[in-house]
Amino acid sequence: MDHGKPKVFAAKRIPPEALAYLEQYCDVRSWDGDGPIPRERLLAALADAEGLLTSGDAIDDELLARAPKLRAVSTVSVGYNHFDLDAMRRRGVVGTHTPYVLDDTVADLVLALMLSAARRVTELDAYVKSGRWERGQPEAALFGTDVHHASLGIVGLGRIGERIAQRAVHGFGMKLYYHNRSRNPEAEERYGAQYVSMDELLGESDFVVLMTPLTPKTERFFRKEHFDRMKPSAFFINASRGRTVDENALVEALATGRIRGAGLDVYEVEPVDPSHPLLAMPNVVTLPHIGSATAQTRRDMALTAARNLVASLRGDEGAYVVKELRS
Ligand SMILES: NC(=O)C1=CN([C@@H]2O[C@H](COP(=O)(O)OP(=O)(O)OC[C@H]3O[C@@H](n4cnc5c(N)ncnc54)[C@H](OP(=O)(O)O)[C@@H]3O)[C@@H](O)[C@H]2O)C=CC1
Ligand SMILES: O=CC(=O)O
């Protein structure tokens, strides 16, 4: 232990190279229990900490009040909806995240969800493995939907959305629509993306991909009226956050055949309840929030988060401070 170094607490296990980097500059204590750290343990650990490395812990007023020395919070994620931005601003706590390093990995997963849902990969995998594949069955029972040359509507064409666009347009020859609050001229140029209203996007797209951050503005913003405007043959893909969608409306749209299917990496409550109706639907592909979960990308994210924390505590340039907290 070095008394000259700032005390930081790592509330999640991080790979050795990220830990080694952090230890060069900080006096590090880490949570080494299985699963997420219990809230009370986290609050106790923060009593004298100047920095916190976390992933999903709520950084709210209660936590900040119990961490009087805290100056910087670094999340090992690009999403930072667990930050209470007002409380952090009020208390002068810097918040950083890990954009860019995970874009391609998450985009790969979104394509996997689109392909799996459209070509019924998980449903037909279960069909083969359960011994139901027999000669003489009507072929059409196994038919799916083409992804190539179909139309894709991305709601939230940002860093990850652009990597999805690149794969969809250049790899699969898809036609691309998008809707953000502001236009993305580079993406229009690179991918021939057409900026359209939500109504137009929903009416034109064979695949609707939701990729916005979760903010007070996007909380449950995709709801019944949106599913009602989609093509009945279309697929809904969500890899943003579960709470951007009214999940009951999604269940209803799927159960009534308003839409053909869905591919989901995220849920309103995670881990999703095993009795959730979405899990019983063969036309829904469900994954356990693994968008960025490859060993390499998780290593890169942890290292970025460690660098962010050190830079924030030293007052150096170069940390990925979340945009709402930049000075
Ligand atoms: N499933 C997983 O494991 C992962 C999920 N994610 C999620 O993906 C999100 C997006 O990440 P990333 O691409 O890096 O973020 P970006 O900020 O680069 O992109 C987000 C896009 O959403 C648009 N947007 C924001 N608010 C709205 C709104 N109200 N209506 C329409 N569009 C909106 C923004 O454009 P504009 O500002 O012009 O509206 C922007 O283009 C993360 O915040 C996270 O929640 C990320 C990584 C992994
Ligand atoms: O959901 C993951 C993230 O990085 O955000």
UniProtKB/TrEMBL annotation:
Limits of the D-isomer specific 2-hydroxyacid dehydrogenase NAD-binding domain: 111-291
Q: Which domain of life does this protein belong to?
A: Bacteria
The family line of this record is: Belongs to the D-isomer specific 2-hydroxyacid dehydrogenase family. GhrB subfamily.
The protein, known as = Glyoxylate/hydroxypyruvate reductase B
Q: Does the keyword Mitochondrion apply?
A: no
Enzymatic class: oxidoreductase
InterPro entries, per database record: D-isomer_2-hydroxyacid_DH (IPR050223), D-isomer_2_OHA_DH_cat_dom (IPR006139), D-isomer_DH_CS1 (IPR029752), D-isomer_DH_NAD-bd (IPR006140), NAD(P)-bd_dom_sf (IPR036291)
Write down the PANTHER family for this protein, in alphabetical order: 2-HYDROXYACID DEHYDROGENASE-RELATED, GLYOXYLATE_HYDROXYPYRUVATE REDUCTASE B
* The EC number(s) this enzyme carries: 1.1.1.79, 1.1.1.81
Q: Does the keyword tRNA-binding apply?
A: no
- Tell me any Pfam family this protein matches: 2-Hacid_dh_C
Biological source species? Paenibacillus antri
Describe the reaction catalysed, as an equation: (R)-glycerate + NAD(+) = 3-hydroxypyruvate + NADH + H(+); glycolate + NADP(+) = glyoxylate + NADPH + H(+); (R)-glycerate + NADP(+) = 3-hydroxypyruvate + NADPH + H(+)
D-isomer specific 2-hydroxyacid dehydrogenase catalytic domain boundaries: 9-322
Q: Which CDD domains match?
A: GDH
Sorted alphabetically, the keyword list is: Oxidoreductase
Q: Name one GO molecular function term.
A: hydroxypyruvate reductase [NAD(P)H] activity
